[in-house]
Amino acid sequence: MLTTTTKRRAGAIGMAAAAALALTACASGTSEEAEASTSAAPAAEETSSAFPVTLDTAMGEVVVESEPQRVVTLGSHEHEYLYALGVAPVAVPVSWQGYDNGTGPWAEEDRIAAGAEPELFEPGTTTYDAELIASFEPDLIVATYPNHTMTQEEYDLLSGIAPVVTRPATGSDGVETVEWGVTLADELTLLAEATGTTDEAETIIEDIDAAYAEVREAHPEWEGKTSQVGGFYEGQAFVYAASDTRNQFLANVGLDVASIEGTDAAWMQISAEKLDVLTDLDSIVWQVATTPDARTELQSLPLFDSLGLTDKGGSIWLSDPVLEGAFFANSPSSIAYALDAFVPMLEQALDGDPATEVVEFSSEG
User: What pLDDT score does 201 carry?
Assistant: First the structure.
């Protein structure tokens, strides 16, 4: 599932450990203060020993010479990963949902704990504004989940400002990564290497693995059940690729998301007359919060009833915008939020009784 190998990880003492030692020194008595301050020195040395570090990314090897102090993120969720690691980026893109500080409420606790008060900027959907990015004086630029595919020309231009970290070249399984399909563990591990917070990343990954395992162990009946995340766009239904982060979530709770052929790309549109390709699915998470009219349009398609979802009770309507944002983010904080919301809906949709109502999650209670 989420667990990744440690061969890509540096053996650095994380920022949280160093902070804990510093707090101990402040809170203790005089003799303890001397003891704590001497023990804090090696931690600082070990943290700095993580650098320089060479990262193997999809755009080639990137060298980060020293611990970054001014990080700028370019994508939709990288800053949430950094918050979880205790790193405070100085600038992040505006939230596509209009949230303050560039992120949804699920990540606020991590942001505050990291002490992050980032500047917000419009990232652009087709090109990067190198002049704007340079104005933040970054010593590291992060684009592991960018808003658009980065060209070699853009990469070279931005690399003239600071080291640019794109997605890892290969995942922990040794397979070349797919754009917008990197696992949380692989992305977090790479960002931890870039920021000297490997210990924090390992703890976070272990905790998320445990949370997913708890759901799987509580629902052995879900093994072999099929599911997909889909929706309706420009007159056609669609499903996301099995590698998409939303389908990764479903796979991590124990569902089979690889049963639809042709979803090797980021997503696959399905014409109305071919909607029955989804017939054998046990459940579908229909993402309709951003496009509420999509629900009516989907249900009015001639073949919608032939999917058998009504008979199985397997339609899950993702109609809450906060949950839609968290589901898309796939960050450490959003995973916890999405688990709390989705598990009850999945239990209702997959209980085998079509009479069971699938109660839609609402962030408003």
Answer: 98
- pTM of the predicted protein model: 0.84
Half-sphere exposure of 67 (CA within 13 A, CB side): 17
Q: How far apart are CA 294 and CA 237, in angstroms?
A: 9
- In the chain, DSSP assigns E strands to 53-57, 60-64, 71-73, 91-93, 119-121, 140-142, 164-165, 227-233, 236-240, 267-270, 283-287, 315-318
Spell 288-322 as b/e; 16+ CB within 10 A means b: bbeeeebbebbeebebbeebebeebbbbbbbbbeb
Q: Tell me the two tokens of residue 236.
A: 């056609």
Cβ atoms of 345 and 359 closer than 8 Å: yes
Sheet holding 227-233, edge to edge: 267-270, 236-240, 227-233, 283-287, 315-318
- Is pLDDT of 263 > 70? no
- Whether residue 222 is predicted with pLDDT greater than 90 in this model: the reply is yes
Structural domains present in the chain: 49-208 (3.40.50.1980), 220-349 (3.40.50.1980)
With residues binned 3-state (H G I as helix, E B as strand, rest as coil), the percentages for the chain, rounded to 5, are 45, 15, 40
Give Dmax (Cα) for the chain.
Answer: 78
Q: Do the Cβ atoms of 229 and 285 come closer than 8 Å? A: yes
- Per-residue pLDDT of 303-327, as tens digits, reads 898 887 877 889 999 999 999 999 9
> Locate tokens 């794109």: which residue?
166
pLDDT 10s digits, 19-77: 332 323 333 333 344 333 333 434 444 445 889 999 999 999 999 999 999 999 999 99
User: Can you tell me the distance from the alpha carbon of 36 to that of 177, in angstroms, rounded to the nearest whole number?
Assistant: 43
The mean pLDDT of 330-347, rounded to a whole number, is 97
**d(Cα 93, Cα 120) in Å, to the nearest integer?**
5
Helix, coil or strand: residue 40: helix
Q: Mean pLDDT across the stretch 97-102?
A: 90
